[in-house]
Structure formats: structure tokens, C-alpha cells
Design brief:
Largest sheet: none
Order of helices and strands: HH
Shape: elongated
Structural class: mainly alpha
Number of helices: 2
Amino acid sequence: METNNNAQRFQEMIKRSHRGKFKIHISMIAGVGKTYRMLQEAHEMLDDEWTC
């Protein structure tokens, strides 16, 4: 049930956004933090959504 609620919130957030941003994290070396940075930005987006 909570998963469905999260999915609905995510869909509402997408509908409210007027224009998206496309980011590519590029590096030839493994372990430099590409995935960590991507997840950190996603958590920041969710935190911003909760404070609005």
C-alpha cells in the first residue's frame, strides 16, 4: 500500500514539472562515485518535494 502511495507521489511530481533535466555522469574509472552522486541528487529531489 505504501509503495502505491509513493508511486502516486512520484507521478504527481512528474506532472508538476514543466521541463526535465537530463544529466549524464561520465567517467572511465569505476568507483569514482557516479552512482552515489546520482542517488544523492534523487534523495535531494525527494527532500525538496517533502518540504514544498
